[in-house]
Amino acid sequence: MTAVQQSAPRPGASAPGARVPFPVVDEVARHCLQEEEPETVHIEVHLPGRPDPARLRKAFTGALARHPRALMREAPGRWYRRRYEWELTRLPDVEPVSFPPPGPDALKDARERSLRDAPPLSASPPIRLEVVDNPDDKDGCALILVMNHTALDGPACMRVLATAAELYGGRDNSPAAPRVRPPGTPEARREPDHMPSGWSRPAHVAPGTPERAPGNGMLLAELPVPHRPKGAPYTVNDQLMVSTALTLAHWNREHGRPARPMRITMPVDDRSRGADMPIGNGTRLVEVPFAAAELAQDRATEEVSPDRIRELLRLTSERTRTLKALSRPQLGHGAALLTAPVLPVAWRAALTRGLRRAAGPWTSTTLLSNIGRIPYPLDFGDAGRAKAVWFSAPARVPRGLTVTTASTDGRLHLALRWSKTLLSHGDGAHLRDLFEHYLHATQLPAPPTTPTPAAPPAHQSHQSVQSQPTKGDS
């Protein structure tokens, strides 16, 4: 029996009706929900054709059944209960797939809804899929997936969508083998010479021209995947990390902020991408530190020199390699202790919110989530294969800005998402331009000891695919 013919959930899955205690990440997110800035994850997939509505609804519902952990709702309970619990359901409580009316603003409106309206936790599944016209492709469409981040993350939802593509098109959508981080030279594999302290108060993104309105804004762009010399010890993820740090250092200098250390939160996902992938919030968070001096411009040229960028790539490679290898709870030992079911959950919620406010000044500068090369073909048969995929993560203050990237067919899909109390759409466009500039700057030629020189960098171009202000590893 082929994978497409199978109808049973994967072995070991919990039965419908079962109750599953909230894991640490889910509980902390549940404690800190805000109606003004919903914790949504947005995924946007562009297809060259349009799927049949009835077949897509059947395929997506079938995919949810294959991954029962996606078919769940928050179980009701008393205020004095010690745990929040998920209740698994056999079928969706609400229709998860919709086809909004076509129109020139259909895609813009769907993007705004993805930032503004989170699927409720009280109804199964906490996922919504909208199929809308793509104004840039008269024959194509965009799939807009929105999930409540309290329940699951982007990679988990992408796994569900890959299963739906397989059921819809009848073709294998198994993930490609993951790329292995280059080993580099023995010198490149050493422990970091100096890891800046994680206890110092980090820089935050300087306010631009905020809209003074609740909610998130978003801008999507398409860039070439940055070139990396053959045999370089750093990865594209390291290039993205350096580009993000230099972009925000430049932004803060422009806005008169004194130089401060930075910490960039980086999700690390060790899950398999196969059909047995655990569904939920499965990433752990690490913080990559940068000293203020490491991000400084050269005084003579007011630019960041190639030598400094090369050193930054080396340091970042060592730091990310070390941090990924650490064994620690998803949100750290403090969060694991805070969610221990000793006190009633309502009391822990109040304590968690208070501690989060108090820790605001020490929150990391931003979050960079690099999904990397999309591992699935996302082949929807007569509707075609995905030709672009964007993700965006919540951007609540005090960070106020998140950077999310993914790649398909040699193109980098960049999403900038910000709190509108901090930045505006014009600020987002300027940050995109700065990011593109510094990403280009990381495309360094190979050092003299490398036998194969790098090819000249490709011409930089971007296709701005943006959300208008809402009245919303490799």
Task: Describe, in plain words, how this protein is organized in 3D.
This protein has helices at residues 24-31, 53-66, 106-116, 154-169, 236-254, 306-325, 333-338, 345-358, 425-441; strands at residues 19-21, 40-47, 72-74, 85-88, 97-98, 127-134, 137-148, 216-224, 262-268, 284-290, 366-373, 388-392, 401-408, 411-419, 465-466. A hairpin with a 2-residue loop joins strand 6 (127-134) and strand 7. Mean pLDDT is 87; it is low at 1-12, 185-189 and 450-474. Helix 5 crosses helix 6 (306-325). The protein has 474 residues and is an alpha+beta fold. 45% of the residues are buried. The protein contains 9 helices and 15 strands. The chain has one domain: Chloramphenicol acetyltransferase-like domain (Chloramphenicol Acetyltransferase), CATH 3.30.559. Helix content is 26%, strand content 20%. It starts with 18 loop residues before the first strand and ends in an 8-residue tail after the last strand. A 7-stranded mixed beta sheet has the order 10-9-11-13-14-8-15, sandwiched between helices.
In short:
The protein is α+β, with helices and mostly antiparallel strands.
The CATH topology assignment is Chloramphenicol Acetyltransferase
Radius of gyration: 22 Å
Biggest sheet architecture: 7 strands, mixed
Number of domains: 1
Could you estimate the helical fraction of the residues in percent?
25-40%
Mean pLDDT reading? 87
CATH class: Alpha Beta
The helix/strand series, from N terminus to C terminus, equals EHEHEEEHEEHEHEEHHHEEEEHE
Beta-strand fraction estimate:
15-25%
DSSP strand tally: 15
pLDDT < 50 runs, ≥5 residues: 1-12, 185-189, 450-474
The computed structural class is alpha+beta
The end-to-end distance, rounded to whole angstroms, is: 33 Å
The CATH superfamily is identified as: Chloramphenicol acetyltransferase-like domain
